[in-house]
User: Fold Homeodomain-like protein from Cyberlindnera jadinii.
Amino acid sequence: EASASVQNKPQGVNKMFTKDEIQAIDKFIEDYCIINGLTRKQICERVWSNERKKDDFWDLLHKVLPYRTRASVYKHVRRSYHVFENRGKWTSEDDQELARLAAEKDGQWKLIGEILGRMPEDCRDRWRNYVKCGKNRAQNKWTTEEEEKLRTVIESMIALQTEAGTELSQEPGINWTTVSEEMGGVRSRIQCRYKWNKLLRREALAKALSMKYDDRIWLLNKLQEIGEEPRTDEDWNKVASLHEKNYWTGKDMNLCYEKMRASIKDYKKKDMKDIC
Assistant:
C-alpha cells in the first residue's frame, strides 16, 4: 500500500528523495509499527541495530522504492529514524571535543558518534567540512589566484584518473578532502566543492548565453513538441542529443531556458506551454 503513493518510477532518479518517496517510506514504517506493536523509539532502535534480525524489515522496505538502491534507502531511513538526541547546532565546545576525538580515534566515526551522542555521519561531515581546517580555514571571498589554483588541482586530478583509465564522474570521482589539502588546508572540502560547482555553472552560463537565436528557437519548439519541461539532467541530455549540431550539452540548454524563462514577467505563475 505504501508504494502505491509513488505511481511510477521517475524518469531520472535524483540523489534527493522526493516528497512522495518520503511519504511512502513513512507510510510503510507507520504500518509496520502498528502491525508489530512497535513504538517510535523501538523502530528507531530496530533501524540502528547491528544484530542480524531474522525478520524481512529491510527487504519489505526496499520494495516500497524498488528502483532505488538498497544502500540509498538504508541510508535515508537511518538518517530519518535515528536514536541520537543531538542533531542540532554545533557549539564551539562541541567542535573542540570533536577535534580531540578525531585526533585520538582517527576514522572511528561510529565510536566518536556514540561518545558525542550524534550520528556517525554528522560527526564525520562536521569534521571534514568545518573543523579539520581549524583556524586556517578562510571565510573571505575567493581570490582569482585561489580560483586558478583550485582549477589546477582539480584538472590535474582528473587528468591522472583519465591516464589511469578510471571512469570519472563529478562525484565521487573528485576527492574533495584531497583537494582541500592541496589548497593548503585554508579552504574546507565543502568550500572547494561549492566553489568548483559555481565555477562550472559560471562557465556553462557564459556558453549558454552565447547560444544563437536559431538554436534558442529550436529549443523552445522542441520543448513544445515534447509537451513537458525536463526535470532531471538526464532529461535535458536527451533534449540536447536531438540537436543536429551536437554542440550544446543538456546543461547548456537547461541554463539557456532558465534565463529566457526568467526574462518573462510572472514566469513562476506560467506553465511551460505559455513560456514557449
User: Anything to note?
Assistant: The chain has four domains: 2-80, 92-132, 144-205, 211-275.
